[in-house]
Write a structure and sequence with these properties.
With 259 residues, the protein is mainly α. 81% of the residues lie in helices and 0% in strands. The radius of gyration is 20 Å and the shape is elongated. The model has no long low-confidence stretch (mean pLDDT 86).
Length: 259
């Protein structure tokens, strides 16, 4: 539990990047706002059409007692909305990181400089980011499907599907968000996931905290820059990297609003 909370705390530390480089962090709100507007509209539409869709999916329940037919359709509706909500959170991350690649690269570099005093030489690359984002969405679909199936279990399905979906999507978010900082240090996909497994509790803590914020209305837009910064700090902690003397001295200076 201590490591889980420590991982969640790294997201809070990512918020501290607002004090050090407010300009870069403010720019990081723009891609999230654009993507969030589109995703929010799609989610509202899904919620609006879902009741009629559930009725179309369950014609066999028309002859049931009203209580049982209603209970079945409510369970399917809740499971369906929750599954899509998890998928949207994962897809939002993938699309926002791709659309805002230059901006989030700037936040990553600013976090590296302020925390360690230097930026790794290995470039992350746009197409590598696109590939990671596509894989994230595909894995997110599988998680959403699993959460939907669990949500159909009588009595406990809603809670079980929600908890499992939250943990699995949190893991996916941690994997995706840390990929930039870890790839810049020469770690390939297999090495990154090995490191995540070695620090499983910290990764889950960071990812679940991020996912919870994403589920709050407008939370995904507001927290995305901090998630990028916090994931960079996660990589530093997992790899045991320490700040240089220059970084410590820089931390003590007033922030530059233009950065």
């Amino acid at each position: 539990m201590r490591d889980f909370l420590a991982g969640a705390g790294l997201l809070l530390r990512g918020l501290g990047q607002w004090r050090r480089t407010p300009g870069a962090m403010a720019l990081g709100l723009i891609p999230g706002a654009v993507v969030g507007l589109a995703f929010g509209a799609a989610l509202v539409g899904w919620g609006f059409w879902l009741p009629s869709l559930v009725d179309d999916w369950t014609p066999f329940a028309d002859g049931w007692e009203p209580f049982w037919a209603g209970a079945l359709r409510v369970a399917i509706g809740i499971a369906s909305f929750g599954a899509v909500l998890f998928l949207f959170a994962v897809s939002f991350t993938a699309v926002t990181l791709t659309v805002g690649e230059p901006i989030y690269d700037r936040i990553w570099r600013a976090t590296e400089r302020s925390a360690l005093g230097a930026v790794p030489d290995v470039e992350y690359g746009f197409w590598r980011g696109v590939g990671d984002s596509v894989r994230l969405v595909l894995r997110g679909i599988l998680v959403a499907l699993l959460a939907w199936l669990l949500g159909l279990i009588p009595l406990v399905g809603g809670v079980l599907g929600g908890v499992v979906g939250l943990l699995l999507t949190g893991w996916l978010l941690a994997d995706e968000l840390t990929s930039r900082a870890l790839s810049a240090r020469g770690l390939d996909r297999r090495a990154r996931r090995t490191l995540l497994r070695e620090h499983r509790a910290k990764a889950l803590g960071f990812g679940v905290a991020t996912q919870i914020c994403f589920l709050v209305p407008l939370g995904a837009v507001a927290i995305m820059p901090a998630a990028v910064a916090g994931s960079t700090l996660w990589a530093h902690v997992a790899l045991g990297e320490k700040p240089s003397r220059d970084a410590v001295e820089r931390e003590a200076r007033p922030a530059d609003p233009a950065r």
